[in-house]
Amino acid sequence: MTTAEAPALSRDEAFARIRLLRSPNVGPVSYAQLLARFGTAAAALEALPDLVGRTGRPYQPALPARVEAELAAVRRAGARYLFHDSPDYPALLGQAEGAPPILIARGEGALVHRPAVAMVGARNASAAAVRIARDFAAALADAGYAVVSGLARGIDGAVHQGALAATVAGGGGTIGVIASGIDVTYPPEHAALQEEVATRGLLLTEQPPGTEPLARHFPARNRIIAGIAAGTVVVEATPNSGSLITARLAGEMGREVMGVPGSPLDSRSRGCNQLIRDGAVLVQSAEDVIELLSGFDGTPRAPLREPSAPFLLAEPADRPADVTALLTTAPVAVDELVRQSGESAAAVQLALLELELAGSLVRHAGGRVSRSA
């Protein structure tokens, strides 16, 4: 996705884009491929029933009334839409595989144009880690960075508080990314903090209004946090925490991954310490973060994993490849399906698109796919 020289979006096409994304089984990759194949969301919506019908399943796109209700809810919340080709869409996020085609935003839109750093960590954080997170965030915001986090308990909350304190003194700002609708607060005790982020910083979500924060929404939110920023800092994390998921996603996107070391006697530090052992850069001050990111040229100092390029539809195919027999519930790379099928990349992608829209395919990170269970 790119924001370069994007044409002005008509109201009808904006409506159609929202409707397309809210239609059954349309995700970020299939959305991008449908736009590439049909040119506009309106044309894609018209083609969807026939496209999915080739799999033998009926298909009904999202009803216009549902989009009308969503638009009204977004207006009531004082929010707005950011489309993937809008100049107000976060540029780095737009470069990430599987980036949300549409975001809903409240607050200071200029923050997306500032250099950004993400900070995440444990929900049940120690007092020392909370202070570190708050101090780091304040110093980074004071240096002009947009400090990104997820408004969760513990480290996330301290990050936003620190950055907001620096904003009062005329410094930078903070971006909160939530796993719920723009009009839903989670956790409840962060209601005042979320409102402050939305009015003095920037609040972002890809979920429609009224959406409750379900477990499956948090990994999706984490990819937005990692994707917006040039680097991610982890402050305390257990080995299986969502913070490490965010860090791994940042590494896969080719961004800097940093960790604040902690005591080996504290289980809350083990995940972060292991992250450093695996290649994350050890940082002990905000100045370390600034030094690392000020020279960031798109090549991280110590990537945790080689970033994978998105595998998108290049040329429209007239017919889908027959790849059903090659798919199992175990994820496989799309380029491997191309090799094994002997078909063109476009034909394989068309087959995968039809299967996904029919609910028979699951997409995974790194350009891999599997059959739905």
UniProtKB/TrEMBL annotation:
<dbReference type="InterPro" id="IPR057666">
    <property type="entry name" value="DrpA_SLOG"/>
</dbReference>
<dbReference type="InterPro" id="IPR041614">
    <property type="entry name" value="DprA_WH"/>
</dbReference>
<dbReference type="InterPro" id="IPR036388">
    <property type="entry name" value="WH-like_DNA-bd_sf"/>
</dbReference>
<feature type="domain" description="Smf/DprA SLOG">
    <location>
        <begin position="81"/>
        <end position="293"/>
    </location>
</feature>
<dbReference type="InterPro" id="IPR003488">
    <property type="entry name" value="DprA"/>
</dbReference>
<protein>
    <submittedName>
        <fullName>DNA-protecting protein DprA</fullName>
    </submittedName>
</protein>
<comment type="similarity">
    <text>Belongs to the DprA/Smf family.</text>
</comment>
<dbReference type="Pfam" id="PF21102">
    <property type="entry name" value="DprA_N"/>
</dbReference>
<dbReference type="Pfam" id="PF17782">
    <property type="entry name" value="WHD_DprA"/>
</dbReference>
<dbReference type="Pfam" id="PF02481">
    <property type="entry name" value="DNA_processg_A"/>
</dbReference>
<feature type="domain" description="DprA winged helix">
    <location>
        <begin position="309"/>
        <end position="367"/>
    </location>
</feature>
<dbReference type="GO" id="GO:0009294">
    <property type="term" value="P:DNA-mediated transformation"/>
</dbReference>
